[in-house]
Amino acid sequence: MKFIQKLSVIGLSVCLLSIVFSSASMATKIVTEDHLNSVNNKNKNEIHNYKNDSAKILAQETKTVLIKTEREDKSLLEQKTKEFEEKMKMEQIAFIEEGLKKATTLQDVEKVKSEAANLLKKEKELFKKESEKYVKTVIDTEKVNLAMISSSYKTLLDDFFTFNKHGFYYYDVNKNEFIPNDKVKTIEEVKEFEKKHKEDTIVKDNPINTLILFILLGSLCIIPLFISKRQNEAWS
Q: Is the alpha carbon torsion for 72, 73, 78, 79 positive or negative?
């Protein structure tokens, strides 16, 4: 009786483990298919002569990585520009008012306006030279749940020839969007992934292309011979 109970417990455990593993496998398959659809859509929009739904995921890993993005912080420049414009406005008004007090002819008025414009131009040139120091380089960091994908795909030429291609893709799982390769190329996890799957990038030529080419070349040789033979038969 105890032996039967043990067998029942073992059988129940095996069933539970099978359910768990099958559920995990199904979840992985669904995620992979979602990424495959995303890769197909991306290729369709970005790759010329892409053969629809030809993408195949060769390898995939998902890791949490830290992405660093370099950007220019122009907040100080904007503040200084606003201050400069206000300062120039006040100085221009004061300069013109002072000049007009001394002006006695229309020519004097035009001279004041010209001098004010030249002064403003010089001040702007000086400010432009100084403005570079008001722009700071800032590095933003962001944790991303990144799906790293190695995928093959095909392109078409003249609806006859197909060419095998390969690409690495990086997908933000949380935002459901692709990240440009140059934005993640310095990340160690990405470097390791591409190194591990370097052989995926070696694509082979499609033998059907060679076959089609031989058929076309053969046709170019045979058709003239056939036409020549028919003409000789007609003349004889």
A: negative
Site of tokens 């170019």: 220
Q: Which residues contact 203 (CB under 8 A, 6 or more apart)?
A: 152, 164, 165, 166
Q: Between 106-130 and 75-102, two packed helices, what is the crossing angle to 10 degrees?
A: 160
Residue 189: half-sphere exposure toward Cβ, Cα within 13 Å: 16
Looking up tokens 């420049």 gives 77
162, β-bridge pairs: 156
Residue 217 pLDDT: 58
What pTM did the predictor assign? 0.60
CA 79 from centre of chain: 33
Q: HSE, CB side, 13 Å, CA atoms: give it for residue 158.
A: 5
pLDDT digit string (tens) for 128-148?
999 989 999 999 999 999 999
In this predicted structure, the answer to whether residue 168 has a pLDDT above a threshold of 90 is yes
Domain boundaries, the chain: 2-67+147-225, 75-134
Confidence of residue 149 (pLDDT cuts 50, 70, 90): very high
What are 211's two structure tokens? Answer: 């076959």
Token pair of 46 as six digits:
């970005």
3-state helix vs strand vs coil in the chain, percent to 5? 65, 25, 15
Residue with tokens 């949380």: 174
Amino acid at 21: F
More confident call, 108 vs 147: 147
Q: Which of the residue ranges 18-32, 77-91, 178-192, 218-232 would you say has the lowest mean pLDDT?
A: 18-32
